[in-house]
Design goal:
The chain is of the alpha+beta class and about 190 residues long. The strands form 3 sheets. Strands 3-4-5-8 form a 4-stranded antiparallel β-sheet, covered by helices on one side. The chain has a 3-stranded antiparallel β-sheet with strand order 7-6-9, with no helix packed on it. A two-stranded antiparallel ribbon has the order 1-2. The relative contact order is 0.13.
Length: about 190
């Protein structure tokens, strides 16, 4: 009986040490999945732009043939995709993977392009990774969001201290536990 009590005590000690270490695993998986998806989307954006550049705007993208002489419905005047989404999913115009955990938060119309604001599994404001006072820069959490800007201006635009260039998809990283305020105004010089 004494041996059984010792075994139970040892199992309790191991559990008290091991369980806290495993609790962050889900959060780390969400962050890693979100960063990997954004990396794939960024690569796809550059691929579309590269193909557009090489072919002087006359290229096949997805199921649609686009010619330089036609109205640019799919890319802007610099060859970056205007809309990353298909009718069924976020980023569906660019990648095949499951992106159901990404949500479009807002779309701001800026004339001939839209600014898309979205969140992923780690940055979702409802069930993302809890924002901590010791926030790690560049890692998404609950109060952060992503911005895609297929800009046509040749000068960079700025918002909240970040500089955006055509085709950029960037994380707006709110440090600490502050609340995410989605952009309403962007300055371009």
């Amino acid at each position: 009986m004494v041996e059984l009590i010792f075994v139970i005590v040892i199992i309790g000690i191991l559990a008290s040490v091991g369980i806290p270490k495993l609790s962050g695993t889900s959060d780390n998986a969400k962050k890693t999945a979100e960063l990997a998806t954004i990396s794939a989307v960024s690569t796809a954006i550059e691929s579309v732009h590269g193909e557009w550049s090489i072919n002087d705007g006359d290229f096949t993208w997805g199921l649609t043939r686009q010619k330089a002489s036609e109205t640019l419905n799919y890319t802007n005047s610099l060859g970056y995709p205007i809309n990353l989404n298909s009718t069924t999913k976020v980023f569906g115009a660019l990648i095949k993977g499951d992106t159901s955990s990404f949500t479009i938060v807002n779309t701001i119309n800026m004339g001939d392009y839209n600014i898309t604001i979205f969140t992923g599994p780690a940055s979702n404001s409802n069930h993302g990774v809890k924002a901590l006072a010791s926030d790690i820069s560049g890692k998404p959490d609950k109060n952060d969001y992503w911005v895609y800007m297929p800009l046509t201006p040749t000068t960079p635009c700025r918002f909240q201290g970040k500089e955006f260039y055509p085709g950029d998809i960037l994380l707006i990283d709110i440090q600490g536990t502050g609340t995410a305020v989605y952009p309403a105004a962007i300055t371009c010089n």
